[in-house]
Amino acid sequence: MGKRIGILLSGRGSNFEAIAGNIRNGMLDAEIAVVISNREAAPGLATARALGLNAVCHPSKGIEREALDAQLVATLRQHDVDLVILAGYMRLLSPVFIRAFPQRILNIHPSLLPAFPGLDAQHQAFEYGAKISGCTVHFVDEQLDHGPIVRQAAVPVLAGDTAETLSARILAEEHKVYSEAIGIVLSGRYRIEGRRVLVEEN
């Protein structure tokens, strides 16, 4: 059995579904140990339960960030998670969380970082007039959308695009490169030098 991953999500969890599918079809050697959401109504949580996975809700409403993150850390440790995957988790993680899993948290962002960090990156790129956008899988550190980059995929901005059509094509690439990046990190076939993630290609 592959190494154990924990997935955090707040919404529909389409990247979670893609990762689960790649595990089922043998493209990714990993086991989803637990899926956690800060919203009980998150569709991704219902999907996790339908797949027979451990699914946990830690509601974020009315709780301080550090207290919530302490709960998340405890649940992830309870399930012996090797790597934490953010799949549309719409809350900033506190230093308490990040220091609990140093260089063991991955996020995917819908732009070619360092361009267009933060919310609505696809719309930012479209409004800016960028000719190429894409997505970035990176390690999470204590700064927003900042950690060392594991994988990127470029997506051209077409003349007939809207922000919505561009977002859809970026999402299709996210579903591919996230599993690739997870596989690299779990295999240990990389090293970090400064900000550079150097991958040992087969």
Low-confidence stretches: none
Q: How would you describe the shape?
A: globular
> What share of residues is helical?
25-40%
Q: Helices and strands: which structural class?
A: alpha/beta
By CATH, the topology of the largest domain is Rossmann fold
Q: Under the CATH scheme, which architecture of the largest domain would be assigned?
A: 3-Layer(aba) Sandwich
Characterize the quaternary organization of these chains: single chain
Q: Average pLDDT across residues?
A: 95
Number of strands: 9
What does the largest sheet look like?
Answer: 7 strands, mixed
Cα-based radius of gyration, to the nearest Å: 16 Å
Distance between the termini: 21 Å
Please give the order of strands in the largest beta sheet. Answer: 3-2-1-4-5-6-7
Q: What's the helix-strand series?
A: EHEHEHEHEHEEHEE
Strand content: 25-35%
CATH-assigned homologous superfamily of the largest domain: Formyl transferase, N-terminal domain
State the domain count. Answer: 2
Count up the helices.
6
**What is the CATH C level class of the largest domain, in words?**
Alpha Beta
